[in-house]
Here is the input.
Amino acid sequence: MGKDSRIEWTHHTFNPWWGCVKVSAACDHCYAESWAKRVGSDVWGPDANRRFFTDAHWKEPLKWNQESTSEGVRRRVFCASMADVFENRPDLVAPRQRLLELINATPMLDWLLLTKRIHLVKKLLPKGYSLPPQVWIGTTVENDEYARKRLKYLLELDTPSVRFVSCEPLLGPLNLAPYFQRSDAGTRIDWVIAGGESGHGARPMDPAWPEDLQKQCAAAKVPFHFKQWGHWVPVSNLDLPHGLRTQKVVTFYKGNHEILVAGVGKTAAGRVLRGRTWDQIPATRTTEP
Here is the structure.
């Protein structure tokens, strides 16, 4: 948890618990699992206990809400960076209910709930409960396969203020254009976050994949946020006149044209895409209390 998060697209992070189970290719090199192990928390996998927190931890968002109310400025809260709110386990029913009550009690905070289990949202919400307008709900879509599997469930949710997609890590070409059109329920994707993979074992991202996503978003007037290249970056982004041969390089092809990406680490790779940074955020549709 943290106020003033280092994640570019949120102000704060809040975790109702730690721990999860891997469910798709995007989870293969999960940063949250690696971080938990680094600090000595064995909370990953179906048989591991989840890590829960004290009342003091749960009071922090109430303070953030008071600050936002005093300043008259909404703040975004990413929930949960170290877990999945919609993991289906009996021991998570009570803390998930507590989280929903906390969300209801903090109307000046926009809560970003990102899940790979979007198909379970309706099942796991309390009977008769509707997500309040300060909820933005999103799902991870790493390639076209998971777009087909997950986005139909995202578009079925008719009450969130914003529906978003996290294409991080982006593991293949992705066509989101059909989901930018209004569904029969009047819903569509409102925001796209994209980025490459970082850390040990990071898989290279073809530069054409995020470039094409940005163009799709621009055509549909959907806000686009490019978070990072990750470990791998196009050589054309780097000043490596003599150092290229010291870097590990992977080749992609655009027609007959070679596109080289070098493994230089997240910090050196940066987040410049097509000559600029992309920090577009959707406007909230909630109203102040």
